[in-house]
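Forum: Protein Structure Q&A
Topic: Joint prediction for protein chains with partners

I've read a bunch of threads here and the consensus seems to be that you should model interacting components together rather than docking separate models afterwards. I'd like to see that in practice. Below is the full input, 182 residues plus whatever partners are listed. Could one of the regulars post the assembled result?
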Amino acid sequence: MPKNKIQFQKGLSLQSFLHSYGTEEDCRDRLFKMRWPSGFSCPQCGCSRYYFVTTRNLYQCTMCKHQTSLISGTIFESSKLPLTTWFLAIYFITQSKDGLSGLHLRRLLGISVNAAFKMKQKIQHVMKSADDSLRLENLVELDDVYWGGKKKVVSEAVEHQEKLHFLQQSPITRKDTQYTCV
Ligand SMILES: [Zn+2]
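Posted by a regular:
Agreed with the consensus. Here's the joint model:
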């Protein structure tokens, strides 16, 4: 059997992640580059020069004096948690193949239940928004699919019938091969 390239694709190990985003400064640098890839740009006047107000972590435009923060307008805004915690949450959620519960996230990060649930909700909302802008085209292959919800106790015959019904709604074909089971 040929090696499945997707299953063996290179991932990001926790060690590599912590090496890149282990400190608040690392996370701020990354966020700055993502937010202003061509350098700072004042959201008010577009000026590229700024002073950094160290006491309040704000960027002040030299032209119009407008002050903005790195996290304003992002999911990190109005959160008291450090960026390292947010980045780690993003790492755990995106690396989990079959989802991560809020309680598990809480245990992994050592934060409150409420904070964990809010983080998870915000991160997943952003992930959904990004996915919604992409349309699947041509051949779509599914592997290791997890459908949510508690498994119903049904007879083998009914389960088989339900599976076939679902698969018949979205047939996937490639050349002479027809994939009817995932
Ligand atoms: Zn300005």
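The helical segments are 14-21, 24-35, 83-95, 102-109, 113-132, 156-169.
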